[in-house]
Amino acid sequence: MKKLRFTLSEDGKISLMKYGLSLVATLAVGAVMILLQGENPAAAFVEIFRGAFGSRAAIGNTLHWAVPCMLVGSAALVAFKSGVMNLGLEGQLYLGGFVAGCAGYMVSLPPVLHPLFCLLAGGLAGMLWAMLPAFLKLLFKVDEVITTLLLNYVAIFFTELLTLLVISGAKALGTNSIMTPLIHDSAKLTPLIPGTSATTGIFVAVAVVLCVYLLYRYTLTGYELKQVGENLKFARVGGVNANKMFIIIFLVSGFIAGLCGSAETIGVNNRFISRFSSNLGWDGVMITRVASNSPLGVLVVSLIWAAFKAGALHMERTTTLNRYIINLLQALFVLFISIDYGMLYRKYLGWRARKKMVEEEARKLEN
Question: Transmembrane segments in this chain: where (predicted)?
Answer without folding.
Answer: 20-38, 58-80, 87-107, 113-136, 148-172, 192-216, 246-266, 286-312, 324-344
